[in-house]
Amino acid sequence: MSRVLPQPVTPDAAAASDAVHPHRASSARRGDIQGLRALAVVLVVAYHADRSVPGGFIGVDIFFVISGYVITRMLLAEAQQTGRLDLRHFYLRRIRRILPALALMSTVVVLASVVVGPAAGGERTTSTGASASVLSANTYLMLLPAEDGYFDVNAGVNSLLHTWSLSVEEQFYLAFPAALLGALVLARRARALEANRSIFVLLVAVLAVSFALCWTASTGRTLPLVGEGLSTQFGFYASPARAWEFAAGSLLALASRRVAVLGPRTSGALAVLGGALILWAAFAFDDTTTFPGTAAAIPVWGTMLLIAAGESRSGNPVSRSLAVAPAQFVGDVSYGWYLWHLPLIVIATALVPHHPSIALLAAAASLAVAWASYRLIEDPVRHRRAAPGRTLAIGALCVLTPLLAVGAAQLLWRQLSNVKDPPPLPLHLDVTAGCNDATPLGEPTRPDCTWEVPGGGGEDLAVLVGDSNAGQFSEPFVEAANDDGRDAVLATYASCPFVDLVVEERGDERPGCRGFVTGTLRDLVARRPHVVIVASASSWYIEDDDFTFTDPRTGLSRGDPAGKASMWRAGLGRVLEPLTAAGVEVVIAHPVPRFDGFDLTRCSTVWWLLDAERCGSSIERAEAEAFRDRAVDAESAGADDAGATTIDPLPQLCTASECRTHDGDTWLWRDMGHVSVAAAPRLTDALRAAMP
Question: Which pTM value belongs to this model?
């Protein structure tokens, strides 16, 4: 489809040519933009490989701005030179450029992931692959539960998680040219300047509405008529919430003539500032950053400034450095590298679960695959002249082939799942019964989590309270309490230790934690159960550098392990003393050993079925005890101060010399820091003996 249009104001042919810029690689493209693509993909790959760049996910935002700029510049140049927008030709070019490489990657990955990918990710990967094939992976991922978000643990088993951003780009390519054509048609009887105003109004409107949607969804806030009830998943994945990033690049393209006359000092300053913004975001942001929200504006502005600096005819050192040969190579293969890096990282990590450098090796190998994709598929297909009908046939084949592969993979996955259930292992009783809740014990809105003695007649109560480290004792606690003739009550809240401290992870406190602790303590003192068992992952909070403690009474904060251990003793004592003073018997359960890096869900399906021990891990008992020493000492001292007692689950879970995640076919650990439901009964006798 093409239409005669009013001509928007753009640079003349000479000014628009890349040849007039000494820092550009050729007359066909801008070398600095290829360098920006290289920077973007390196950031993303580094983030996925080993988190060495904690905010590397902003590389996707850089890509979005570049796409908005390049596509708008190309379409405006076409309208200027021919007086038409040939959308049919545009869409055919996009088919040849995007779909063949994507189809090959999707087909290979969905088939491979079922057999050698993470055992917990086969179904999720195939479903994502099916959605990616019809340009809607972002929509599928947006509709998943919140715990499957991009920054969450469950996301790490999806080999095709990264295709969400490709779907967003493809949706932009579908919608934006048509919207631009509409804006120009509305001004078809107007002068060129008024045509530009129509485009400007369109872009500003898109940017304003989209940014409002993005901000409200990301932060959980609302604006009148905008963003009511939108999820954080919508803010991250949905095209309407990301369109403002493309619009920012498009607005810059509209202003390219004015930007081109910037002097060397101005363009150099813009380039330095833009690069600084991107690098700051790449290393200051991490998985806990509210994103995209307003934070995404930083890499968006940085990218716009770098593109604007490179637009200047005078040039600048930063833009020239982006155009060096190595950056051009990486920029050329950036699409293929983005396609292949995450699948190879996920699959390699599943096959070699405990190799410290396997993710980096897989990322490097994916660069070689990307080069092959560029030379053998991307370049030949996009530069080959083909009739429209043939291009459409290629596009149809690129959609149908991955879908057929998805169907075959799902059939295979069902067969493999019948042989052996894939991980994750079952959740503990406190979670499955709805007892893991921020509502304090005693509040009428808290779920009823009381297990009465069979047949009734329980003489008094036994209560288990704490974070998920307490929750892993749920099954043996209920059995031991009921066997002793006591009704059992569960009151847990994950990541919320039962201590009188403000515990922050990377500067953020667990929402509702202080209310849970103070409210539950108040109810326990009033109710006076016979025994209360308190358990928290104390060793993790004390030893991990991500956590800081603040004394709510003095405001003193500590982040070093020794200081935190001292504060833990005092904070634990402040919740134990009111209980023991009320005549309640209190028992502190020390933390279980921790297996850093152990994640059963990421183990390869082939190992899970044929040699599951490859999925496991082990540590020397002395090492496990050394990690807990500070926490055990602090808890023991706090218990002594308050007149409470302690128990240690480690002897029931480890041998005299070693702690293992599994014992034959029985998995003792559910994840790196929690025992499994199958192993929990090993603790029943210890809990029964601890109840007076």
Answer: 0.87
